[in-house]
Specification:
308 residues, alpha/beta, Rossmann fold, Alpha-Beta Plaits, 2 domains, six-stranded mixed sheet, four-stranded antiparallel sheet, 38% helix, ABC transporter ATP-binding protein
Length: 308
């Protein structure tokens, strides 16, 4: 990833309406050269709509979008972009090889490149089998092969592990890591936290059409917090909220999580003990991406509810 180079994807104030439905609401995001960028959010959050705009399949209602220095859908931009949006669609009674030959003919791609991409996605042995006989994982891999045919600088993949079994998900993650290691820029949408955490350099989190965070995975996770098990728990929670603010204290399973620096652990412990609260566990921990994700998306949903 080159943090000093110009972004390959620049989106500012992106909005998309379908009648009265606001599918994307003022989204800003940047994708830097050479990174694997995870576009993370629940199903229905606006991820696919955004990617369809980036690939020129639909037009935005408002906002600015630049992809590889040009407008989405321009011929010179499409020539340098490979994409798989939603489920890949191929001719069912043609082989995987023949489906790629059809696409290569349209895109003016040399025939030897077909063999290269089939090897990249580990489909060379099944290339002559009909697409209709492929497993879901193989169909997804053929979709990625099609996205790579033009040897693109930017690869856009919409939920590439959707519907795969654990083995298929593992293979797809390995492939995406290899694409990133090969110097390509990958924009990957997903609703799977573990997937993004394992393979992405940076993450943009979208909820209800709105971007709620954009950071490196490490930045999202490195904020530390105290894990406290105390009795009575509600008394401890009320006391900590009074002392530190409601935003710093939340329940997680049977414990309290408190967003303060680890060097304040003794201070927090003394506060609870002096109030007659029994503390049976207190330690610092790195926040999991899952915790951050649910906190950000839940906060956003509550804000929208109150605003309405």
């Amino acid at each position: 990833m080159n943090a000093t180079a110009a972004p390959l994807v620049e989106v500012s104030g992106l909005t998309k309406r379908y009648g009265d439905t606001l599918a994307v609401d003022g989204v800003d995001l940047t994708v830097l050269p050479g990174e694997v960028y995870g576009f993370l959010g629940p199903n229905g959050a606006g991820k696919t709509t955004t990617l369809r705009i980036l690939t020129g399949l639909i037009c935005p209602t408002s906002g600015t979008v630049r992809v590889l220095g040009g407008a989405p859908g321009q011929a010179q931009v499409l020539a340098r972009t490979g994409s798989m949006i939603e489920s890949p669609a191929f001719y069912p009674y043609l082989s995987g090889l023949d489906n790629l030959r059809v696409l290569a003919e349209y895109a003016d791609v040399p025939r030897p490149r077909i063999d290269e991409v089939l090897a990249l996605v580990d489909l060379a042995d099944r290339a002559r089998d009909r697409f209709s006989t492929y497993s879901l994982g193989m169909k997804q891999r053929l979709g990625v092969a099609a996205a790579l045919l033009k040897d693109p600088e930017l690869v856009i993949l919409d939920e590439p592990t959707n519907g795969l079994d654990p083995a298929g998900m593992r293979d797809m993650r390995r492939l995406i890591r290899e694409l990133g290691a090969d110097g390509r820029t990958v924009l990957l949408s997903s609703h799977l936290l573990g997937e993004v955490q394992q393979i992405c350099d940076r993450v943009g989190i979208i909820s209800e059409g709105r971007m709620v965070a954009e950071h490196t995975v490490d930045e999202l996770r490195t904020e530390q917090e105290l894990v406290i098990r105390a009795t009575p728990r509600e008394n401890a929670r009320s006391l900590l909220i009074e002392a530190l603010g409601a935003a710093a204290v939340h329940l997680y399973d049977e414990t309290l999580r408190v967003k303060v620096a680890p060097d304040r652990a003794a201070e927090v412990n003394r506060l609870l003990v002096d109030a007659g609260i029994a503390v049976s566990e207190l330690h610092s921990t790195e926040r999991a991406l899952e915790d951050v994700f649910f906190e950000l998306t839940t906060t956003t949903d509550k804000e929208k509810t109150h605003a309405g």
